[in-house]
Request: fold
Amino acid sequence: MNKINFYLLEYAYGYIVRHKNKNIFIVTVFTLLVALLCTLFFITTSVSFELQKRIANEPDIVVQNYQAGMPTASTNAMLDKLLEIDGISGGNLRVAGKYYFRKENTYFNLVGIDPFEELSNKFLQNIVDTTDINSSCMLVSKDVLSIMKKAYYSNYFNFVKADGTLVKVPIAGSFSTEDKHYLDKTILMPKELLRKIFAYKSNEGSDIALRIANKNELDFLTTKIRLLFPNAKVISKDDSVLLYKNLFNYDSGVFLALFTIALFTFFIIIYDKANGLSSEEKREIGILKAIGWRVEDVLHAKFYEAALIAFFSFIMGFILAYIFVFILKAPFLGNIFMHENLLNIATFSLNVHIEFSYVLLIFLLSVPLYIAATLIPSWRVATMDADEVMR
Amino acid sequence: MIQLHNISKLYDKNIKALDNISLSFKEGELVILKGVSGSGKSTILSLIAGLCKPTQGEVIVDGKKISKLPDHFAAAYRRDHIGIVFQRYNLISSLSVEENVLLPLFPLNLTRSVMQERANRVLEKFHIAHKQALIVKNLSGGEQQRVAIARANINDPKIILADEPTANLDEKLSREFIAILKELKSQKRTIVVATHDPLFFDLDFVDRTIEIEHGKLL
Reply:
Protein backbone atom coordinates (compact mmCIF):
# COMPACT_ATOMS: atom_id res chain seq x y z
CA MET A 1 0.00 0.00 0.00
CA ASN A 2 3.01 2.30 -0.32
CA LYS A 3 2.07 3.62 -3.76
CA ILE A 4 -1.21 5.18 -4.78
CA ASN A 5 -3.01 2.87 -7.17
CA PHE A 6 -5.13 5.23 -9.24
CA TYR A 7 -7.11 2.36 -10.77
CA LEU A 8 -8.23 1.27 -7.31
CA LEU A 9 -8.87 4.89 -6.41
CA GLU A 10 -11.02 5.31 -9.51
CA TYR A 11 -12.76 2.04 -8.74
CA ALA A 12 -13.45 3.27 -5.19
CA TYR A 13 -14.76 6.59 -6.47
CA GLY A 14 -16.89 4.73 -9.00
CA TYR A 15 -18.22 2.52 -6.23
CA ILE A 16 -19.26 5.59 -4.24
CA VAL A 17 -20.99 7.08 -7.27
CA ARG A 18 -22.69 3.78 -8.12
CA HIS A 19 -24.14 3.66 -4.58
CA LYS A 20 -24.81 7.35 -4.50
CA ASN A 21 -28.07 7.35 -2.54
CA LYS A 22 -26.55 5.48 0.38
CA ASN A 23 -23.31 7.45 0.24
CA ILE A 24 -24.99 10.84 -0.04
CA PHE A 25 -26.83 9.96 3.16
CA ILE A 26 -23.60 8.91 4.89
CA VAL A 27 -21.71 12.01 3.68
CA THR A 28 -24.55 14.25 4.83
CA VAL A 29 -24.76 12.72 8.30
CA PHE A 30 -20.97 12.54 8.64
CA THR A 31 -20.55 16.16 7.52
CA LEU A 32 -23.24 17.41 9.88
CA LEU A 33 -21.79 15.51 12.81
CA VAL A 34 -18.27 16.79 12.15
CA ALA A 35 -19.71 20.28 11.66
CA LEU A 36 -21.57 20.05 14.96
CA LEU A 37 -18.55 18.74 16.86
CA CYS A 38 -16.26 21.34 15.27
CA THR A 39 -18.82 24.04 16.06
CA LEU A 40 -18.89 23.03 19.71
CA PHE A 41 -15.12 23.01 19.96
CA PHE A 42 -14.69 26.21 17.96
CA ILE A 43 -17.10 28.06 20.24
CA THR A 44 -15.70 26.70 23.49
CA THR A 45 -12.12 27.30 22.38
CA SER A 46 -12.87 30.80 21.19
CA VAL A 47 -14.72 31.67 24.39
CA SER A 48 -12.02 30.09 26.52
CA PHE A 49 -9.43 32.20 24.71
CA GLU A 50 -11.48 35.34 25.31
CA LEU A 51 -11.79 34.35 28.93
CA GLN A 52 -8.03 34.15 29.33
CA LYS A 53 -7.57 37.54 27.70
CA ARG A 54 -10.18 39.04 29.99
CA ILE A 55 -8.68 37.52 33.13
CA ALA A 56 -5.26 38.80 32.17
CA ASN A 57 -6.63 42.33 32.50
CA GLU A 58 -8.23 41.81 35.90
CA PRO A 59 -6.62 43.56 38.89
CA ASP A 60 -5.08 41.31 41.53
CA ILE A 61 -7.72 42.17 44.12
CA VAL A 62 -11.00 44.07 43.85
CA VAL A 63 -12.68 45.36 46.99
CA GLN A 64 -16.36 46.27 46.87
CA ASN A 65 -17.97 48.01 49.79
CA TYR A 66 -21.18 46.51 51.19
CA GLN A 67 -23.58 47.87 53.75
CA ALA A 68 -26.48 45.90 55.10
CA GLY A 69 -25.71 43.28 52.52
CA MET A 70 -26.13 45.76 49.68
CA PRO A 71 -23.34 47.02 47.42
CA THR A 72 -22.51 50.60 48.17
CA ALA A 73 -19.86 53.15 47.24
CA SER A 74 -16.25 52.54 48.14
CA THR A 75 -14.26 55.48 49.45
CA ASN A 76 -10.84 57.06 49.29
CA ALA A 77 -10.54 56.46 53.03
CA MET A 78 -10.85 52.71 52.41
CA LEU A 79 -8.23 52.92 49.70
CA ASP A 80 -5.81 54.72 51.98
CA LYS A 81 -6.22 52.04 54.65
CA LEU A 82 -5.72 49.30 52.10
CA LEU A 83 -2.57 50.88 50.75
CA GLU A 84 -1.10 50.77 54.23
CA ILE A 85 -1.13 46.95 54.14
CA ASP A 86 2.33 45.52 53.48
CA GLY A 87 2.41 43.66 50.19
CA ILE A 88 -0.07 45.89 48.38
CA SER A 89 1.96 47.79 45.87
CA GLY A 90 -0.70 50.12 44.51
CA GLY A 91 -4.35 50.69 43.89
CA ASN A 92 -7.01 53.07 42.78
CA LEU A 93 -10.60 53.91 43.45
CA ARG A 94 -12.44 52.92 40.33
CA VAL A 95 -15.55 54.54 39.05
CA ALA A 96 -17.24 52.22 36.62
CA GLY A 97 -20.50 50.45 36.05
CA LYS A 98 -23.19 49.33 33.69
CA TYR A 99 -25.67 51.78 32.31
CA TYR A 100 -28.90 50.39 30.92
CA PHE A 101 -30.10 52.15 27.77
CA ARG A 102 -33.72 51.16 27.66
CA LYS A 103 -34.52 52.47 24.20
CA GLU A 104 -32.11 50.02 22.59
CA ASN A 105 -32.41 47.41 25.37
CA THR A 106 -28.68 47.28 25.93
CA TYR A 107 -26.04 47.96 28.56
CA PHE A 108 -23.13 50.35 28.20
CA ASN A 109 -19.95 49.74 30.18
CA LEU A 110 -19.01 53.08 31.67
CA VAL A 111 -15.37 53.37 32.74
CA GLY A 112 -14.08 56.40 34.61
CA ILE A 113 -10.61 57.67 33.71
CA ASP A 114 -8.16 59.86 35.55
CA PRO A 115 -5.04 61.36 33.95
CA PHE A 116 -3.03 60.48 37.06
CA GLU A 117 -4.16 56.88 37.34
CA GLU A 118 -3.38 53.89 35.22
CA LEU A 119 -6.20 51.65 34.06
CA SER A 120 -5.71 47.93 34.65
CA ASN A 121 -6.72 47.32 31.04
CA LYS A 122 -3.69 48.17 28.90
CA PHE A 123 -5.74 48.52 25.74
CA LEU A 124 -8.03 51.13 27.27
CA GLN A 125 -5.07 52.90 28.87
CA ASN A 126 -3.47 53.20 25.44
CA ILE A 127 -6.63 54.79 24.05
CA VAL A 128 -6.69 57.29 26.92
CA ASP A 129 -2.99 58.06 26.43
CA THR A 130 -3.36 58.76 22.73
CA THR A 131 -6.63 60.69 22.76
CA ASP A 132 -7.30 64.24 23.82
CA ILE A 133 -10.29 64.20 26.11
CA ASN A 134 -11.42 67.06 28.29
CA SER A 135 -13.30 66.92 31.56
CA SER A 136 -16.79 67.17 30.09
CA CYS A 137 -16.57 64.75 27.14
CA MET A 138 -16.56 61.05 26.59
CA LEU A 139 -14.95 58.53 24.23
CA VAL A 140 -17.18 55.75 22.99
CA SER A 141 -16.46 52.47 21.28
CA LYS A 142 -17.61 52.21 17.66
CA ASP A 143 -20.53 49.95 18.51
CA VAL A 144 -21.75 52.37 21.18
CA LEU A 145 -21.59 55.18 18.64
CA SER A 146 -23.67 53.20 16.21
CA ILE A 147 -26.25 52.35 18.92
CA MET A 148 -26.43 56.00 19.93
CA LYS A 149 -26.78 57.12 16.32
CA LYS A 150 -29.68 54.73 15.92
CA ALA A 151 -31.32 56.59 18.74
CA TYR A 152 -30.42 59.92 17.03
CA TYR A 153 -27.54 60.80 19.38
CA SER A 154 -24.73 61.73 17.03
CA ASN A 155 -22.77 64.31 18.95
CA TYR A 156 -23.84 63.83 22.54
CA PHE A 157 -25.81 61.52 24.82
CA ASN A 158 -28.19 62.22 27.65
CA PHE A 159 -27.56 60.02 30.66
CA VAL A 160 -30.44 59.75 33.09
CA LYS A 161 -29.38 60.09 36.71
CA ALA A 162 -30.96 58.28 39.65
CA ASP A 163 -33.04 61.34 40.52
CA GLY A 164 -34.42 61.50 36.96
CA THR A 165 -32.43 64.52 35.82
CA LEU A 166 -30.26 64.36 32.71
CA VAL A 167 -26.53 64.69 32.26
CA LYS A 168 -25.68 65.71 28.71
CA VAL A 169 -22.22 64.45 27.68
CA PRO A 170 -20.68 65.37 24.30
CA ILE A 171 -19.00 62.62 22.29
CA ALA A 172 -15.35 63.57 21.79
CA GLY A 173 -14.51 60.61 19.60
CA SER A 174 -14.79 56.88 19.12
CA PHE A 175 -12.42 53.95 19.24
CA SER A 176 -12.42 50.47 17.81
CA THR A 177 -12.25 47.53 20.18
CA GLU A 178 -10.66 45.49 17.37
CA ASP A 179 -10.69 41.84 18.35
CA LYS A 180 -11.22 42.65 22.03
CA HIS A 181 -14.93 42.14 21.91
CA TYR A 182 -15.24 41.92 25.65
CA LEU A 183 -14.60 45.67 25.54
CA ASP A 184 -17.54 46.22 23.21
CA LYS A 185 -20.08 48.84 24.31
CA THR A 186 -17.51 50.67 26.41
CA ILE A 187 -17.63 54.38 27.21
CA LEU A 188 -14.65 56.21 28.66
CA MET A 189 -15.21 59.47 30.49
CA PRO A 190 -13.53 61.39 33.28
CA LYS A 191 -14.25 60.02 36.73
CA GLU A 192 -15.80 63.25 37.94
CA LEU A 193 -18.32 63.21 35.13
CA LEU A 194 -19.15 59.58 35.79
CA ARG A 195 -19.59 60.31 39.50
CA LYS A 196 -22.28 62.80 38.50
CA ILE A 197 -24.13 60.17 36.50
CA PHE A 198 -23.90 57.49 39.18
CA ALA A 199 -24.50 60.02 41.96
CA TYR A 200 -21.21 59.33 43.77
CA LYS A 201 -19.60 61.94 46.00
CA SER A 202 -16.16 63.21 45.01
CA ASN A 203 -14.39 60.77 47.37
CA GLU A 204 -16.48 57.78 46.31
CA GLY A 205 -16.20 55.15 43.63
CA SER A 206 -17.70 51.83 42.58
CA ASP A 207 -14.86 49.65 43.87
CA ILE A 208 -11.16 49.54 44.62
CA ALA A 209 -8.64 47.80 42.38
CA LEU A 210 -5.42 46.70 44.04
CA ARG A 211 -2.07 45.48 42.77
CA ILE A 212 0.14 43.25 44.85
CA ALA A 213 3.89 42.80 44.65
CA ASN A 214 4.05 39.06 45.19
CA LYS A 215 1.40 36.90 43.51
CA ASN A 216 2.06 34.13 46.06
CA GLU A 217 0.65 36.39 48.77
CA LEU A 218 -2.72 36.76 47.05
CA ASP A 219 -4.63 34.49 49.46
CA PHE A 220 -2.90 35.90 52.49
CA LEU A 221 -3.62 39.50 51.48
CA THR A 222 -7.20 38.72 50.57
CA THR A 223 -7.74 37.26 54.03
CA LYS A 224 -6.09 40.28 55.62
CA ILE A 225 -8.40 42.68 53.73
CA ARG A 226 -11.44 40.65 54.75
CA LEU A 227 -10.42 40.99 58.38
CA LEU A 228 -9.87 44.73 57.96
CA PHE A 229 -13.21 45.29 56.20
CA PRO A 230 -15.57 42.51 57.33
CA ASN A 231 -18.49 43.98 55.40
CA ALA A 232 -16.62 44.36 52.12
CA LYS A 233 -16.62 41.89 49.31
CA VAL A 234 -13.04 41.00 48.44
CA ILE A 235 -12.55 39.38 45.07
CA SER A 236 -9.13 38.02 44.26
CA LYS A 237 -7.99 37.36 40.71
CA ASP A 238 -8.38 33.64 41.48
CA ASP A 239 -12.02 34.26 42.44
CA SER A 240 -12.59 36.03 39.11
CA VAL A 241 -11.06 33.13 37.28
CA LEU A 242 -13.34 30.77 39.18
CA LEU A 243 -16.41 32.91 38.47
CA TYR A 244 -15.76 32.96 34.75
CA LYS A 245 -14.86 29.31 34.74
CA ASN A 246 -18.06 28.35 36.52
CA LEU A 247 -20.05 30.33 34.04
CA PHE A 248 -18.07 28.84 31.21
CA ASN A 249 -18.42 25.31 32.57
CA TYR A 250 -22.16 25.74 32.82
CA ASP A 251 -22.24 26.67 29.16
CA SER A 252 -19.87 23.84 28.32
CA GLY A 253 -22.26 21.45 30.04
CA VAL A 254 -24.93 22.33 27.50
CA PHE A 255 -22.38 21.78 24.79
CA LEU A 256 -21.26 18.52 26.34
CA ALA A 257 -24.83 17.26 26.04
CA LEU A 258 -24.88 18.19 22.35
CA PHE A 259 -21.46 16.62 21.91
CA THR A 260 -22.66 13.38 23.52
CA ILE A 261 -25.73 13.24 21.30
CA ALA A 262 -23.59 13.84 18.21
CA LEU A 263 -21.11 11.15 19.15
CA PHE A 264 -23.89 8.72 20.05
CA THR A 265 -25.51 9.21 16.65
CA PHE A 266 -22.19 8.77 14.93
CA PHE A 267 -21.46 5.54 16.76
CA ILE A 268 -24.86 4.18 15.78
CA ILE A 269 -23.92 4.76 12.14
CA ILE A 270 -20.51 3.20 12.70
CA TYR A 271 -22.07 0.21 14.45
CA ASP A 272 -24.58 -0.23 11.66
CA LYS A 273 -21.87 -0.03 9.02
CA ALA A 274 -19.52 -2.37 10.88
CA ASN A 275 -22.25 -4.94 11.21
CA GLY A 276 -22.21 -6.13 7.68
CA LEU A 277 -22.52 -5.69 3.98
CA SER A 278 -25.51 -6.09 1.74
CA SER A 279 -25.70 -9.23 -0.40
CA GLU A 280 -24.86 -7.11 -3.46
CA GLU A 281 -21.74 -5.73 -1.76
CA LYS A 282 -20.69 -9.22 -0.70
CA ARG A 283 -21.20 -10.57 -4.20
CA GLU A 284 -19.05 -7.81 -5.66
CA ILE A 285 -16.20 -8.67 -3.30
CA GLY A 286 -16.64 -12.34 -4.25
CA ILE A 287 -16.35 -11.45 -7.95
CA LEU A 288 -13.23 -9.38 -7.34
CA LYS A 289 -11.62 -12.26 -5.49
CA ALA A 290 -12.65 -14.75 -8.16
CA ILE A 291 -10.95 -12.70 -10.88
CA GLY A 292 -7.70 -12.52 -8.95
CA TRP A 293 -7.90 -9.70 -6.43
CA ARG A 294 -6.09 -10.48 -3.21
CA VAL A 295 -7.60 -9.67 0.20
CA GLU A 296 -5.32 -6.65 0.45
CA ASP A 297 -6.41 -5.43 -3.00
CA VAL A 298 -10.04 -5.52 -1.86
CA LEU A 299 -9.14 -3.76 1.38
CA HIS A 300 -7.00 -1.27 -0.53
CA ALA A 301 -9.99 -0.29 -2.67
CA LYS A 302 -12.30 -0.24 0.36
CA PHE A 303 -9.79 1.93 2.21
CA TYR A 304 -9.86 4.44 -0.64
CA GLU A 305 -13.63 4.35 -0.68
CA ALA A 306 -13.93 4.97 3.07
CA ALA A 307 -11.12 7.52 3.08
CA LEU A 308 -12.70 9.50 0.23
CA ILE A 309 -15.99 9.68 2.10
CA ALA A 310 -14.43 10.33 5.50
CA PHE A 311 -11.93 12.99 4.39
CA PHE A 312 -14.46 14.75 2.18
CA SER A 313 -17.05 14.78 4.97
CA PHE A 314 -14.51 15.87 7.56
CA ILE A 315 -13.24 18.77 5.46
CA MET A 316 -16.77 19.82 4.56
CA GLY A 317 -17.81 19.61 8.22
CA PHE A 318 -14.79 21.68 9.26
CA ILE A 319 -15.52 24.35 6.63
CA LEU A 320 -19.20 24.48 7.52
CA ALA A 321 -18.38 24.86 11.20
CA TYR A 322 -15.84 27.58 10.44
CA ILE A 323 -18.37 29.53 8.39
CA PHE A 324 -21.11 28.99 10.97
CA VAL A 325 -19.03 30.00 14.00
CA PHE A 326 -16.56 32.59 12.78
CA ILE A 327 -18.35 34.17 9.84
CA LEU A 328 -22.01 33.86 10.80
CA LYS A 329 -21.14 34.13 14.52
CA ALA A 330 -22.98 30.94 15.47
CA PRO A 331 -26.61 31.99 15.33
CA PHE A 332 -28.77 30.06 17.89
CA LEU A 333 -25.88 28.11 19.44
CA GLY A 334 -23.80 31.18 20.14
CA ASN A 335 -26.63 32.65 22.19
CA ILE A 336 -25.81 30.19 24.93
CA PHE A 337 -22.82 32.39 25.67
CA MET A 338 -24.54 35.72 25.31
CA HIS A 339 -25.31 36.53 28.94
CA GLU A 340 -25.28 40.26 28.63
CA ASN A 341 -28.98 40.91 28.51
CA LEU A 342 -29.91 37.85 30.52
CA LEU A 343 -27.50 37.91 33.42
CA ASN A 344 -25.62 41.12 32.85
CA ILE A 345 -22.42 39.26 33.63
CA ALA A 346 -20.31 38.67 30.60
CA THR A 347 -20.43 38.86 26.88
CA PHE A 348 -18.28 36.53 24.88
CA SER A 349 -17.44 37.09 21.27
CA LEU A 350 -16.39 34.51 18.74
CA ASN A 351 -12.99 35.39 17.39
CA VAL A 352 -11.06 32.98 15.21
CA HIS A 353 -9.10 30.84 17.57
CA ILE A 354 -8.83 27.18 16.73
CA GLU A 355 -7.29 24.64 19.05
CA PHE A 356 -5.94 22.12 16.57
CA SER A 357 -5.63 19.43 19.22
CA TYR A 358 -9.45 19.45 19.38
CA VAL A 359 -9.70 19.28 15.61
CA LEU A 360 -7.31 16.35 15.73
CA LEU A 361 -9.48 14.74 18.40
CA ILE A 362 -12.58 15.05 16.20
CA PHE A 363 -10.58 13.72 13.28
CA LEU A 364 -9.41 10.72 15.29
CA LEU A 365 -12.90 10.10 16.65
CA SER A 366 -14.47 10.12 13.23
CA VAL A 367 -12.22 9.40 10.24
CA PRO A 368 -10.26 6.34 11.42
CA LEU A 369 -13.40 4.96 13.05
CA TYR A 370 -15.36 5.26 9.85
CA ILE A 371 -12.55 3.74 7.81
CA ALA A 372 -12.26 0.86 10.27
CA ALA A 373 -16.02 0.36 10.23
CA THR A 374 -15.86 0.08 6.44
CA LEU A 375 -12.83 -2.18 6.35
CA ILE A 376 -13.83 -4.67 9.03
CA PRO A 377 -16.92 -6.15 7.31
CA SER A 378 -15.13 -6.04 3.94
CA TRP A 379 -12.20 -7.88 5.47
CA ARG A 380 -14.56 -10.48 6.94
CA VAL A 381 -16.07 -11.14 3.52
CA ALA A 382 -12.79 -10.91 1.64
CA THR A 383 -11.16 -13.57 3.80
CA MET A 384 -13.95 -16.05 3.09
CA ASP A 385 -13.69 -18.40 0.10
CA ALA A 386 -14.80 -16.50 -3.01
CA ASP A 387 -16.89 -19.51 -3.93
CA GLU A 388 -18.77 -19.31 -0.65
CA VAL A 389 -19.31 -15.55 -0.93
CA MET A 390 -20.75 -15.80 -4.45
CA ARG A 391 -23.05 -18.61 -3.47
CA MET B 1 -1.25 -30.31 -15.94
CA ILE B 2 -4.24 -30.32 -13.56
CA GLN B 3 -4.60 -33.14 -11.10
CA LEU B 4 -7.28 -33.73 -8.50
CA HIS B 5 -6.35 -36.43 -5.98
CA ASN B 6 -8.99 -38.10 -3.79
CA ILE B 7 -11.03 -34.94 -3.56
CA SER B 8 -14.00 -34.65 -1.23
CA LYS B 9 -15.84 -31.43 -0.60
CA LEU B 10 -18.45 -30.80 2.05
CA TYR B 11 -20.50 -27.61 2.21
CA ASP B 12 -21.81 -26.51 5.60
CA LYS B 13 -20.12 -29.56 7.12
CA ASN B 14 -22.72 -32.04 5.89
CA ILE B 15 -23.67 -31.33 2.26
CA LYS B 16 -21.43 -33.58 0.19
CA ALA B 17 -20.60 -31.94 -3.16
CA LEU B 18 -17.74 -34.25 -4.17
CA ASP B 19 -17.02 -37.71 -2.83
CA ASN B 20 -13.44 -38.90 -3.14
CA ILE B 21 -12.86 -38.27 -6.83
CA SER B 22 -9.60 -38.22 -8.73
CA LEU B 23 -9.21 -36.50 -12.10
CA SER B 24 -6.53 -35.10 -14.32
CA PHE B 25 -6.46 -32.75 -17.32
CA LYS B 26 -3.67 -32.50 -19.83
CA GLU B 27 -2.31 -29.25 -21.23
CA GLY B 28 -4.29 -28.00 -24.23
CA GLU B 29 -7.10 -30.42 -23.55
CA LEU B 30 -10.77 -29.43 -23.77
CA VAL B 31 -12.84 -31.41 -21.31
CA ILE B 32 -16.58 -31.30 -20.77
CA LEU B 33 -17.84 -32.00 -17.26
CA LYS B 34 -21.33 -33.31 -17.74
CA GLY B 35 -23.99 -33.76 -15.11
CA VAL B 36 -27.25 -32.45 -13.74
CA SER B 37 -27.47 -29.42 -11.46
CA GLY B 38 -25.97 -30.16 -8.04
CA SER B 39 -23.88 -33.06 -9.32
CA GLY B 40 -20.60 -31.31 -8.32
CA LYS B 41 -19.38 -29.93 -11.68
CA SER B 42 -19.12 -26.34 -10.49
CA THR B 43 -17.32 -27.42 -7.34
CA ILE B 44 -14.62 -29.06 -9.46
CA LEU B 45 -14.14 -25.78 -11.34
CA SER B 46 -14.02 -23.83 -8.06
CA LEU B 47 -11.38 -26.19 -6.71
CA ILE B 48 -9.25 -25.89 -9.84
CA ALA B 49 -9.57 -22.09 -9.66
CA GLY B 50 -8.66 -22.05 -5.98
CA LEU B 51 -11.95 -20.38 -5.14
CA CYS B 52 -12.46 -22.91 -2.38
CA LYS B 53 -10.45 -25.60 -0.67
CA PRO B 54 -11.24 -29.31 -0.64
CA THR B 55 -12.37 -30.90 2.59
CA GLN B 56 -10.08 -33.77 1.72
CA GLY B 57 -7.50 -34.44 -0.98
CA GLU B 58 -5.43 -32.05 -3.01
CA VAL B 59 -5.50 -30.11 -6.26
CA ILE B 60 -2.22 -29.82 -8.14
CA VAL B 61 -1.72 -27.51 -11.11
CA ASP B 62 1.65 -27.48 -12.88
CA GLY B 63 3.16 -29.20 -9.87
CA LYS B 64 1.83 -26.63 -7.40
CA LYS B 65 -0.53 -27.69 -4.65
CA ILE B 66 -3.28 -25.16 -5.29
CA SER B 67 -5.44 -26.49 -2.49
CA LYS B 68 -2.72 -25.63 0.03
CA LEU B 69 -1.96 -22.13 -1.26
CA PRO B 70 -2.53 -19.25 1.15
CA ASP B 71 -5.19 -16.83 -0.04
CA HIS B 72 -2.58 -14.30 -1.15
CA PHE B 73 -0.96 -16.76 -3.59
CA ALA B 74 -4.24 -18.34 -4.63
CA ALA B 75 -5.45 -14.93 -5.82
CA ALA B 76 -2.24 -14.34 -7.77
CA TYR B 77 -2.54 -17.82 -9.26
CA ARG B 78 -6.11 -17.10 -10.41
CA ARG B 79 -5.14 -13.74 -11.81
CA ASP B 80 -2.17 -15.07 -13.77
CA HIS B 81 -3.24 -18.54 -14.83
CA ILE B 82 -7.02 -18.89 -14.72
CA GLY B 83 -9.82 -17.33 -16.73
CA ILE B 84 -13.29 -18.06 -15.42
CA VAL B 85 -16.58 -17.64 -17.27
CA PHE B 86 -19.39 -17.91 -14.75
CA GLN B 87 -22.91 -19.09 -15.39
CA ARG B 88 -24.40 -15.68 -14.56
CA TYR B 89 -21.31 -13.97 -15.97
CA ASN B 90 -20.60 -12.34 -12.59
CA LEU B 91 -19.94 -8.97 -14.12
CA ILE B 92 -20.29 -5.77 -12.14
CA SER B 93 -23.40 -4.55 -13.80
CA SER B 94 -22.97 -0.85 -13.14
CA LEU B 95 -19.47 -0.69 -14.62
CA SER B 96 -18.73 -0.23 -18.31
CA VAL B 97 -17.66 -3.05 -20.60
CA GLU B 98 -14.08 -1.82 -20.63
CA GLU B 99 -13.94 -1.41 -16.84
CA ASN B 100 -15.27 -4.94 -16.32
CA VAL B 101 -12.72 -6.37 -18.70
CA LEU B 102 -9.85 -4.49 -17.05
CA LEU B 103 -10.97 -5.21 -13.50
CA PRO B 104 -8.51 -8.13 -12.94
CA LEU B 105 -5.63 -5.81 -13.85
CA PHE B 106 -6.52 -2.95 -11.49
CA PRO B 107 -4.39 -4.19 -8.57
CA LEU B 108 -1.36 -4.51 -10.86
CA ASN B 109 -1.20 -0.74 -11.34
CA LEU B 110 0.04 -1.02 -14.94
CA THR B 111 0.48 2.03 -17.13
CA ARG B 112 -2.56 3.44 -18.93
CA SER B 113 -1.15 2.54 -22.33
CA VAL B 114 -0.57 -1.11 -21.38
CA MET B 115 -4.07 -1.34 -19.91
CA GLN B 116 -5.60 0.21 -23.00
CA GLU B 117 -3.65 -2.04 -25.32
CA ARG B 118 -4.74 -5.16 -23.44
CA ALA B 119 -8.36 -4.05 -23.28
CA ASN B 120 -8.44 -3.28 -27.01
CA ARG B 121 -6.92 -6.65 -27.83
CA VAL B 122 -9.50 -8.76 -25.97
CA LEU B 123 -12.45 -6.53 -26.81
CA GLU B 124 -11.68 -6.81 -30.51
CA LYS B 125 -10.91 -10.50 -30.27
CA PHE B 126 -14.29 -11.24 -28.75
CA HIS B 127 -16.15 -8.75 -30.94
CA ILE B 128 -17.35 -6.43 -28.21
CA ALA B 129 -15.06 -3.43 -28.85
CA HIS B 130 -17.91 -1.37 -30.28
CA LYS B 131 -19.70 -1.57 -26.93
CA GLN B 132 -16.72 -0.84 -24.69
CA ALA B 133 -18.10 2.37 -23.22
CA LEU B 134 -21.55 0.99 -22.48
CA ILE B 135 -22.69 0.02 -19.00
CA VAL B 136 -22.88 -3.76 -18.77
CA LYS B 137 -26.42 -3.92 -17.43
CA ASN B 138 -27.63 -2.38 -20.70
CA LEU B 139 -26.20 -5.22 -22.80
CA SER B 140 -27.96 -8.36 -24.00
CA GLY B 141 -27.15 -11.76 -22.46
CA GLY B 142 -24.89 -12.73 -25.35
CA GLU B 143 -23.00 -9.47 -25.18
CA GLN B 144 -22.58 -9.81 -21.44
CA GLN B 145 -21.15 -13.25 -21.97
CA ARG B 146 -18.65 -11.88 -24.48
CA VAL B 147 -17.60 -9.34 -21.87
CA ALA B 148 -17.18 -12.17 -19.34
CA ILE B 149 -15.06 -14.13 -21.85
CA ALA B 150 -13.00 -11.04 -22.66
CA ARG B 151 -12.42 -10.49 -18.93
CA ALA B 152 -11.43 -14.14 -18.48
CA ASN B 153 -8.83 -13.71 -21.24
CA ILE B 154 -7.38 -10.36 -20.27
CA ASN B 155 -4.30 -12.06 -18.78
CA ASP B 156 -3.93 -14.71 -21.49
CA PRO B 157 -4.55 -17.50 -18.98
CA LYS B 158 -3.38 -21.04 -19.68
CA ILE B 159 -6.55 -22.47 -18.16
CA ILE B 160 -10.09 -21.46 -19.05
CA LEU B 161 -12.91 -22.64 -16.82
CA ALA B 162 -16.50 -22.17 -17.96
CA ASP B 163 -19.40 -22.91 -15.66
CA GLU B 164 -22.69 -23.54 -17.50
CA PRO B 165 -21.66 -20.94 -20.09
CA THR B 166 -24.74 -21.35 -22.27
CA ALA B 167 -27.35 -21.73 -19.54
CA ASN B 168 -28.74 -18.26 -20.20
CA LEU B 169 -28.26 -18.14 -23.95
CA ASP B 170 -30.41 -19.15 -26.90
CA GLU B 171 -29.12 -21.70 -29.39
CA LYS B 172 -27.63 -19.14 -31.79
CA LEU B 173 -25.64 -17.43 -29.06
CA SER B 174 -24.66 -20.82 -27.62
CA ARG B 175 -23.17 -21.79 -30.98
CA GLU B 176 -21.31 -18.50 -31.08
CA PHE B 177 -19.84 -19.35 -27.69
CA ILE B 178 -18.84 -22.79 -28.94
CA ALA B 179 -17.04 -21.10 -31.85
CA ILE B 180 -15.11 -18.97 -29.37
CA LEU B 181 -14.29 -22.10 -27.40
CA LYS B 182 -12.90 -23.73 -30.53
CA GLU B 183 -10.73 -20.73 -31.18
CA LEU B 184 -9.39 -20.79 -27.61
CA LYS B 185 -8.71 -24.51 -27.96
CA SER B 186 -6.72 -23.79 -31.11
CA GLN B 187 -4.54 -21.50 -29.00
CA LYS B 188 -3.56 -24.52 -26.88
CA ARG B 189 -5.45 -23.39 -23.80
CA THR B 190 -6.57 -25.99 -21.32
CA ILE B 191 -10.33 -25.67 -21.14
CA VAL B 192 -12.77 -27.26 -18.70
CA VAL B 193 -16.45 -26.67 -19.32
CA ALA B 194 -19.08 -27.69 -16.79
CA THR B 195 -22.41 -28.04 -18.59
CA HIS B 196 -25.48 -30.09 -19.10
CA ASP B 197 -26.22 -28.44 -22.47
CA PRO B 198 -26.48 -31.21 -25.15
CA LEU B 199 -24.93 -28.87 -27.73
CA PHE B 200 -21.52 -29.62 -26.23
CA PHE B 201 -21.73 -33.40 -26.26
CA ASP B 202 -21.07 -34.14 -29.94
CA LEU B 203 -18.41 -31.51 -30.68
CA ASP B 204 -15.51 -32.91 -32.67
CA PHE B 205 -12.90 -30.68 -30.98
CA VAL B 206 -13.81 -31.84 -27.47
CA ASP B 207 -11.14 -34.20 -26.17
CA ARG B 208 -13.08 -35.82 -23.35
CA THR B 209 -16.43 -35.79 -21.65
CA ILE B 210 -16.57 -36.71 -17.97
CA GLU B 211 -19.89 -37.45 -16.38
CA ILE B 212 -20.54 -36.70 -12.73
CA GLU B 213 -23.43 -37.69 -10.53
CA HIS B 214 -23.92 -37.05 -6.81
CA GLY B 215 -20.30 -35.97 -6.49
CA LYS B 216 -18.84 -39.12 -8.04
CA LEU B 217 -17.42 -39.85 -11.46
CA LEU B 218 -19.44 -42.26 -13.56
